[in-house]
Amino acid sequence: MTRFYSKRDLQFQLFENQNCLELTQIPYFADHSEETFRLVLDSAEQIAEKSLRPLLTEMDRNEPQLIDGKIRIHPGMKTIIRQFGQDGWINALFSYEEGGQQLPWTIHITSGFIFQAANYSASVFPFLTTGAANLIRTFGSKELIEKFTPKMYSGAWQGTMALTEPDAGSSLSDISTTAFPTEAPGVFRIKGQKIYISAGDHDACENIIHLMLARIQGAPAGTKGISLFVVPKKRISNEPNDVLTQGIYHKMGYKGAPIAHLMIGSNDACEGYLLGEANQGLKYMFQMMNEARLGVGMNAVAIASAAFQASLAYAKERPQGRKINEKDLSQAQVPIIEHADVKRLLLFQKSVVEGSLALLIYCAILSDKIAHEVDSSTKKEQEALLDLLTPIAKSYPSEMGVQSTSAAVQILGGAGYTTDFPVEQYYREARIHPIHEGTTGIHGLDLLGRKVLIQEGLGWKLLQREIQKSVDAARAYSALGELRQSFENQFKKFNHGAAQLLFKMNQGPEIFLSDATLFLEASGIICIAWMWLEQAKTAQKALNTGAAEQDFYFGKIETARYFMEYELPKIKGLIERFHSTSYPTIDMKKEWF
Amino acid sequence: MTRFYSKRDLQFQLFENQNCLELTQIPYFADHSEETFRLVLDSAEQIAEKSLRPLLTEMDRNEPQLIDGKIRIHPGMKTIIRQFGQDGWINALFSYEEGGQQLPWTIHITSGFIFQAANYSASVFPFLTTGAANLIRTFGSKELIEKFTPKMYSGAWQGTMALTEPDAGSSLSDISTTAFPTEAPGVFRIKGQKIYISAGDHDACENIIHLMLARIQGAPAGTKGISLFVVPKKRISNEPNDVLTQGIYHKMGYKGAPIAHLMIGSNDACEGYLLGEANQGLKYMFQMMNEARLGVGMNAVAIASAAFQASLAYAKERPQGRKINEKDLSQAQVPIIEHADVKRLLLFQKSVVEGSLALLIYCAILSDKIAHEVDSSTKKEQEALLDLLTPIAKSYPSEMGVQSTSAAVQILGGAGYTTDFPVEQYYREARIHPIHEGTTGIHGLDLLGRKVLIQEGLGWKLLQREIQKSVDAARAYSALGELRQSFENQFKKFNHGAAQLLFKMNQGPEIFLSDATLFLEASGIICIAWMWLEQAKTAQKALNTGAAEQDFYFGKIETARYFMEYELPKIKGLIERFHSTSYPTIDMKKEWF
């Protein structure tokens, strides 16, 4: 069986390059240890290999279908979802009192990485339920929690996030699904429609619990008038709740996970239960959205990881051509991994996958610390840094995951384009991530238009400080001098360019934000280069102290060199834009296309 | 119906920006005129709209199947292939004596662009037959020509190019299919297998004529021992010829065109007819391959064009969000084409599609001139320039076509990921082109390792000369000063970087060629920027002389500005590599991955 992730690398990321064990000093996680973390990850690997992986191709070839108003999914998913529930994956993050394991999110999301790399479609179901249940337990009344969460934890019921509407995609302020008060407090009649609802209906669970954004009749316009409701497909009484599956979307990839078009309250008989306070819906949702966004980054890395491993295995086995200075045709062909350009495509993938994974784990540890930080000024700083990093950690893996899976296809050549190998499936699946949970363009605006600017640039300054610390610490490793110097030079140019961009604020938001996506891209490259500097340091330290597994550590340092030589220079073209005063994307008129 | 190409732009490219009418001064094309060219293109559009386009989705959803040893394709293809034959498309290039129309290849390939943009899968069949028939008429005996070509011209028989084998993909020198002499002169018994043979078997034609590379028993090793054979599926006598369809490949995209795995002579009963001289097969094939490579570039542009048009139509119609400085939520949402970042994605596509089309038409006109040039020193120069440009004109559209269709998906967002819109199909189809007819890596080696170096750099110097001419002529347009200056600056840096790269030859081929793919990428950006400088000049000239259609010409100039501001700066990161003396892609060991 082809590997779909590198266990060795994941352990390096968690226990060597970053120290996730410092989380066990937080009282909530005090029962945990390296041993429990490894057990969780091993158990994730087992489920991934034995249950999820075998369905990868089948679920792609046999898409869910809408039959008689109900979506039918792959029959194997019922067992898998129940297993996730029974083994405690869905509520692993929650407290012992809630039946959970008080697991750090860091370990939960890296377990997720293993599931997603094995079979992205299958991994979607339990993580959606966790997110929805988490919203109910965080903002809901005791009654709502008791009514809904236990069956969600067990995997009997599916949870969803129901945001998008036909006229409200990127523009959530235009949501028009309406909630009409009833005589019962907290109970509303909901009416509207929702589209693109992941796992919005299927036959592997007994009920579907939608966490739905809607506007209470008479609420203020825009995002300030949006509330969050629990809207089950069936009521607790088991009666239908007037949530009808109007359609199913057929997609390019991750076909195993159904996406539904729902009609809510077409017969004026849909009950929804207000979660928390009225008009706070978007705020509540965004609390989950930040984790969801890092989650999308992780999905993207996971698929890129599976594609990288598949193309690496192929490159080691497939003989084609000879070394470039070998003219003797009677010599046997060499495996294509011997060709520099194939190694370049592999190094590219390795640098994207392991660099992104490092950044996401950095963010996850930060997130776990924030949730339990008691010092308010420390917490404020941590939050500012994580808020700033979130659009980057969502977008870099998503955008580069597309290119990384494309490199995997390229290594396999014609074979990679056929369904005989899984890389074409990964290529199709990877394409969703620059769209999911906010498009890249939206995250560009979020980063430059909000995250960089808020609190007098606190998050931005903290990022600078952390990167500078990292550079300074790297000076101790003379073997890494060239690598560090490359990074330092480009980092200075980047900061200079970013400062230049800030001056443009003076010319109004359209000019200032016109290259926000490019700024996001450049920030991503800088952050991943930073993560590679960190990994090179960790590897060099291991080599200096005579570690075994020299191959592994040499590989880390060489990949860091690759990143500084091939990826980091890409910011030069981007920075040129920050200094430019020419704005063709603004000046272009729609009639001119 | 959504447009799939811009007729206005194609006319601009052929008759304004470049002057394809100068070809009518060549005696072979003397009967042609702007009127006949327009008639041909109009007629291509009609077939594309009425016959090809309606099958686009159906052919994707109902893939060819191998049933009882025979591949069944969409039943509509039989009519289409016959129509191509009857309307004279298959032999349009050939002389009146051969029943052809003496049409310039430039007009043939731009007609192909229209077919491919309408339905890439359907367009594949006739063009393969043209290529195969062309090989027979160029190198074959009178007997072979008379036996095989008439039914190919009529569309009754399919032609193919049968090169690839399980152990010989990029490495054609390793072909092992063998031809054993028989008593009949020119007749051989062929034995071996071929994979990935496009249109290698199907039920829309009565016979399949393979132009097959094989090695005559005892021939020298490597490319010098490869011969070209005509190998029909059925002999002229209508007996089967022991060419068995062993399998069909299911692919990610252009599913309507079948790709076959063929067993040749399993029962020692396959007859093949030697084409031309023994051991000249690769030379003959490459004569076609150069056109085939430009053809792949055109396929890539065509799909990118269809995706661009689909996303442009969507962006004009889809309301979402408000202008960035509009805070009043009671205002209606605006079409997304009003957002700068969406315009950026559209300008990117427009710049790739129209820039690549310009380069391909430039190459096509050059190719037509070469075929009829009588002055040997002029011809030598033209050939050197076209040889140099071919890997660029194949690879830039192929690589950027992938990114361009990806931008189309992004504009549609979630909708673009569903099968409700055609962009996801274009995205899947576009991915083949960096693989077809030589991967991008192979073309990088071809460009830097061969085309730049041969004849003391003749082709390379001619390219420099032509670009410099273009820059000098642009000085006459003061309105384009900034744009020209940007190009001139980057062009200088590129030449400086390229010179630096040449010094590395001294260190042997591995180092010299390790960044050949990056050199190809940078060369592509420079050539397309050059094409945009040319288009901007043509547009400015039209505006200066008071042309109507100002919107069209302003759009051209703005897109040229976009290219100089957003795409051209990407060479900076690439050039940095040419100056570097650090080689991680060489130093990386396979054990380190």
CATH class of the largest domain in chain A: Mainly Alpha
Neighbour order of strands in the largest sheet of chain A: 4-5-10-7-6
Portion in helices of chain A: 55-70%
| Inertia-based shape of chain A | globular
Q: How much strand content do the residues of chain A show?
A: 5-15%
CATH domain topology of the largest domain in chain A: Butyryl-CoA Dehydrogenase, subunit A, domain 3
Q: Can you count the helices of chain A?
A: 20
Outline the biggest β-sheet of chain A: 5 strands, mixed, barrel
Structural class of chain A: alpha+beta
Most extensive interface, chain pair and sizes: A-B, 103 and 103 residues
CATH superfamily of the largest domain in chain A: Butyryl-CoA Dehydrogenase, subunit A, domain 3
Pfam families (chains A, B): Acyl-CoA_dh_1 (PF00441), Acyl-CoA_dh_C (PF12806), Acyl-CoA_dh_M (PF02770), Acyl-CoA_dh_N (PF02771)
Domain Acyl-CoA dehydrogenase/oxidase C-terminal (chains A, B): 279-445
Transmembrane segments (chains A, B): 511-533
Organism (chains A, B): Algoriphagus alkaliphilus
